[in-house]
Amino acid sequence: MQSSQHCPEAYMDQEIHVDYLEEHLNEIAKKLNIERPRFRVTRGAKVGQYFIGDIFRVIVKGSRDEKICEIHVILKCAPRDPTRQEAMDSTPIFPREIMFYQEIVPIFVNLLKEYDMVLENIPKFYGASAIQTREIIFMEDLSEKNYTCRDRLKLLDYSHASLVMRELGRLHAYSFALREKKPEIFQKFKKIHDVLFTVNSHGTDVFLNRLRELQRIALKSIKQEGNIYAKRIRKFTSSFWEKMSNACNGNLVEPYAVICHGDAWTNNFMFKYEDEPKKKPISMYFLDFQMCRYATPVTDLTYTLFCCCNQETRARYYKQLLSDYHRSLSDFLTRFGCDPELLFPYDELTKQLRKFGYFGLGMAIFTLHVFTKVDADVNTVSKTHKDVVEAEERLDTDILYKSMLVGALVDAVDMGYISSMATDISQEHRKSERENELLEELKKIAKNVNYANPRFHVSPGSAKGDNIFGDIYRTTIEGEKDGKLEKSCSIIKCVPELQYLEEVIKVSTVFQREIMFYREIVPIFKKLLQEHDFELESIPKFYGADDTPNKQIIILEDLREKQYELRDRLKLLDYPHAYLALRGLGRFHAYSFALRDKHPEIFKKIQSIEDTMSEAIKNPTELMTKFQEGITALALKSISHKDPYYVQRVETFLENILPKLIEASDGSFAEPYAVLCHGDAWTNNFLFKYDDEAKTNPTSMYLLDFQMCRYASPIIDIMYTLFCCCSQETRREHYEQLLQDYHESLSSFLQQLGCDPEVLFPYEIFQQQVKKYGYYGPTMALFTLHGQTDATGEFGNMMDVNFCKKLEKRLETDRLFKNMMASAFIDAVDKNYI
């Protein structure tokens, strides 16, 4: 074998046996039909560039078809040094990459061929040897295609990180498409378990000692950021191994697990550029699949974003980079004839980020001391932990290492990735980020109304507990127009910060529902009313919305400027307030009845608006099922002191509550008397205006929050209000009168619109529907009163396994909660609704 002057044969023999290498190179030459091959070998990676093995560049020269040819090959071999083998535990790693190229890549290639595509971002594989401690892998040398590694110390700026995200999207799309198109073949992927955070690695003293020291260094680095961060990081590191192992377990994220790259950091990406300064990469390849595993895609994404990007890049582009990833994944799935909204919707990506986003931080703690070292040398990775000892010293001298480590720690805390709920940490950081988003929306409004030199003010728009499915902000814009100073006030609703809500309902879906209501339904109602010289009353003016998934914003008029205000939910609705609420609902429902009568074709749009909660009810999560069981037991306990007759009736009703709830929310069961219902008609969604200082006599009202609007029987709105917002005393004194107040309002307005209420919704039919769907009131009481009566405004995390136990204690001490819950079921039994 001919060797290079840069890599003499004597030196090569220290790395790998020359005869052994030549034997495999001859096999490759034979596969490529190269005769009389000669080989030239040089080192293929700089010191510090490759940590788990050794890289050599090989030039194979010979003849093929009687012509001189030259093939460039990269050779990867396992480390020969026993110390490095133990420290890095390379035993399972090389066989994993060999398996990837020999078994997984052909599956991907065949799948792509079926759709006229080729595998573009993975190097060609020429062969391998899997003999333990003497493993070798041969693949194409991408430098011949002008691909180069980026200097790891420069990190990844947006242009590089975006390309990586998009290519990870493509790589992950292969798995999602295979899962759908060839499920039998896909089963093979489920056996590809993690090789890093395994029991074997866990039992390696060298590995564990290194990990403990690196965790201690992380805690030391974060001290200056304050106790909140230190507390969160300490809690995270206390269960580090378990958390990292869970993140790498694909069985925990079904059906959204894929074959992940597993080691997605800078040195495992090769870029090609269109410009000489190499600032804008145009394509890339992945290298080193030694850690590939079946896991959540989030492990790849957060590894790259937290270990290869600095804090500034994350602050500016984090959400955009996630969007780049998902858009690429979706595009490729579409090319495979798959529906990305079924296989991996954006909502699911954000949910998995909240659940496993900590993985990026874990890898940052574990690897950044090496990734950021100027003269990183694999020989420092030994039993003496020289690299770890140096890492602690570098906290005081190495700006890159410290800033990357602290940035990863702070961002993981601020993003809520290492806390069960993000409500008690870094509120100011998230508040600032949210207000920046609002500021951009306000600038758009100022531009639309031609304000010069605009000034903006943003403040909280509701008290704690006043709005669970959204965060409310009150905004003011002051500016000059036509030489005068003008002011515009608005309310902005944003997707809430309460992450557990995703387990209860897809918050993005309910926001989309309200945006649809204002954009599509309100114009229909307005046009109908204009035909009869009426204006739309009792619904706020709509100024605009952003429907970007999980970032939705709705901008409405600030009714405070018209002296409308919320009633204290703990005071409930007395008769004057309930009277106005029921009359307002009557008018609102009249729009649907009139539209059905006057414009039946347009009315079909209303009929298509299904309940946003039905899917969650039909297919409840395990936690939701436990919550239902717990809250049901609570309801029975609230009436346990009553006559057994009540207990038996309620118990029988609760056994079949979910199908009844679905039926009540489905308008097809109430035809031809179904309407567009408000869907969430409780105290905090009514705004009242008063004519007295004591605020006992409301004169008019507005309806808010149409996130749950649906096509159903009008009775569900009425029962929700009467059983969840009124006391038992109010119901006993005014129940029948309030029902009459509702129907009189509806009938009166239908007549003004030229309709006959005795045809569209006669009182007799109304009473029949009250009897049929009256159970909806206590049903909603069951699921909502714990929050509506909570004086703290916390509402609580319904997905907390101890949540119902906490409510059980409240039942003993909170008189309002207990009385409202018990009376809702007692009255429903007395009225024969259940």
Any chance you could write out the topology, listing elements then pairs?
Blueprint: H1 9-15, H2 18-31, E1 35-43, E2 54-64, E3 67-77, H3 82-88, H4 93-114, E4 125-129, E5 136-140, E6 148-149, H5 158-181, H6 183-186, H7 199-202, H8 205-222, H9 227-238, H10 240-247, E7 258-260, E8 269-273, E9 281-286, E10 293-295, H11 298-307, H12 311-335, H13 340-343, H14 346-356, H15 358-371, H16 386-394, H17 399-414, H18 427-448, E11 452-460, E12 471-481, E13 484-494, H19 501-504, H20 507-530, E14 542-546, E15 553-557, E16 565-566, H21 575-598, H22 600-607, H23 614-618, H24 622-638, H25 644-654, H26 657-664, E17 675-677, E18 686-690, E19 698-703, E20 710-712, H27 715-724, H28 728-752, H29 757-760, H30 763-773, H31 776-788, H32 803-813, H33 815-830
Antiparallel strand pairs: 1-2, 2-3, 3-5, 4-5, 6-8, 7-10, 8-9, 11-12, 12-13, 13-15, 14-15, 16-18, 17-20, 18-19
Helix pairs in contact: 5-11, 5-12, 8-9, 8-16, 11-15, 15-17, 21-22, 21-27, 21-28, 24-32, 27-31, 31-33
3D architecture notes:
The strands form 6 sheets. This protein has a 5-stranded antiparallel β-sheet. A 5-stranded antiparallel β-sheet has the order 11-12-13-15-14. Strands 6-8-9 form a 3-stranded antiparallel β-sheet, covered by helices on one side. It is an alpha+beta fold and 834 residues long. Among the domains are: 1-140, Phosphorylase Kinase, domain 1 (2-Layer Sandwich); 146-427, Aminoglycoside 3'-phosphotransferase, Chain: A, domain 2 (Alpha-Beta Complex). Helices cover 51% and strands 14% of the residues.
